[in-house]
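Hey, can you fold this one?
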Amino acid sequence: MTELTSTRGATTVIRCFGILAAILDIAVRDRRLADNPARGVKLPKKRPKPRVYLTHRQVSELAQHARYPEVIYFLAYTGLRWGEATGLRVRDVDLNRRRVTVYENAVLVNGQMHVGSPKTHASRAVRYPEFLDPVIRPLLAGKDSMNLLFGDGTDYLRLPNSRDGWFAKAVKRAQRDDPTFPRVTPHDLRHTAASLAISAGANVKAVQRMLGHASAAMTLDTYADLFDDDLDAVATALSQARNRSIHAATQAPYPLPPTAPGIGL
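Sure. Predicted structure:
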């Protein structure tokens, strides 16, 4: 374990250890081992990478340089995972309500495309903003209900290579035009969608539903840094409420708690 940790990242070590532990669990179950020596071993901790959030302007810049600008816009304003977005079919789009319903998740494994249920194993409806309507409508033209929304309708769009794929090339072009443009991946557009939604006033429950998280707690744990302004707003609201209550103290039918020493109105 020590040797593997010295040459591999925490994620790789944890995955390898998980496989080993599962094999030894089978040996214990078959009574070939008395116990599993892999259980209880201290594993390296994952160090979360700083998230990148694009602004509205940066999303547009990236889309202008991309081979598939419609994919850029869609991911950045719906928060769908790559496999969820590329697994959408024409039948899943409701133009009147501007909604897409996620039923499938397309994932490439060892060169083969595997299509299954979304990560949370439950379908969900996600509404896209009105300005994306001109982007979505052309994607439906000439396609049957079971055709894929993105691409030619038959072949799934594959996640572009992180070094020389069309997405990476779009990022490089954007960086040439704007040296401050950050290095981003397709998954960072999901983070961007969360950031833009929260900055627009969406609450944690709405963001949870949009992203398809299992719970609001998971959304808060993942994007706690984006809710700092909400904490400031809560403190401000409490202060304002207290001031109003004390101002009306002479008319209050019940006694108010005394003002704490050192705290002004």
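The first helix runs from residue 2 to 7. Let me know if you want another pass with a different chain boundary.
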